[in-house]
Write a structure and sequence with these properties.
The complex is a heterodimer. By secondary structure, chain A is mostly beta strands. The model of chain A has no long low-confidence stretch (mean pLDDT 93). By secondary structure, chain B is mostly beta strands. Chain B is 0% helix and 46% strand. Chain B has no helices and ten strands. In chain B, the strands form two sheets. In chain B, strands 2, 4, 5, 8, 9 and 10 form a six-stranded mixed beta sheet that branches. A four-stranded antiparallel beta sheet of chain B has the order 1-3-7-6, with no helix packed on it. The termini of chain B are far apart. Classes of the chains: A mainly beta, B mainly beta.
Chain lengths: 114, 115
């Protein structure tokens, strides 16, 4: 039972254009949604999050949009840069026994072409 | 330390042997998590520890897997009688108990290869 799904295993975007990564979820009880970025041979690093009570959060070139009725979120990166090439994981958070528990999607490999 | 430290970074073991993976979380982080990433897969939850509470072991794939956290700090993940399907990158993460959406801090992982 995959609670968080990233249906695109890979995405290729030209440098300077907008990258849009998508994520769908099934559980309405998640309280936060997060995006992580992962380079090869490194652990995932936190990028940006959004509370379930918001519909948009922006941080520099990164914006996350949340559509609760569709149970869908997306990460927009604009303008895309070569250093953005990485695997991006969507995650959904619930608070269990006082700690955050994250459920991750399968990841999307983003390649930015010069 | 400044980040989450995992050791070893790489481990090659023969099928049937036991392995121990170590995680040293960020000082002061009360929650510690183990995930694994198999080839081409997402991050699979294994187990988490929160303070003195009983660990949530719901993600452990079989009874060959166990983990402990001593003194609320360092954790070891033990895999007994390793199988080839155990080959994966094992990631440890820690976090403060804030629930504010700040997420976890991950270590660089241990790449386990069972031959």
């Amino acid at each position: 039972d995959q609670q968080v799904k990233q249906n695109s295993p890979s995405l290729s975007v030209q440098e300077g254009r907008i990258s849009i990564l998508n994520c769908d979820y099934t559980n309405s009880m998640f309280d936060y949604f997060l995006w992580y970025k992962k380079y090869p041979a490194e652990g995932p690093t936190f990028l940006i999050s959004i509370s379930s009570i918001k519909d948009k959060n922006e941080d520099g070139r990164f914006t996350v949009f949340l559509n609760k009725s569709a149970k869908h979120l997306s990460l927009h990166i604009v303008p895309s840069q070569p250093g953005d090439s990485a695997v991006y994981f969507c995650a959904a958070s619930s608070l269990i026994q006082g700690a955050q528990k994250l459920v991750f999607g399968q990841g999307t490999r983003l390649t930015i072409n010069p | 330390g400044a980040g989450v430290s995992q050791s070893p970074s790489n481990k090659v073991t023969e099928k049937g042997k036991d392995v121990e993976l170590r995680c040293d979380p960020i000082s002061g982080h009360t929650a510690l998590y183990w995930y694994r990433q198999s080839l081409g897969q997402g991050l699979e939850f294994l187990i988490y520890f929160q303070g003195n509470s009983a660990p949530d072991k719901s993600g452990l794939p079989s009874d060959r897997f166990s983990a402990e956290r001593t003194g609320g700090s360092v954790s070891t993940l033990t895999i007994q009688r390793t199988q080839q399907e155990d080959s994966a990158v094992y990631l440890c993460a820690s976090s403060l108990v804030t629930g504010t959406g700040g997420g976890y801090t991950f270590g660089s992982g241990t790449r386990l290869t069972v031959v």
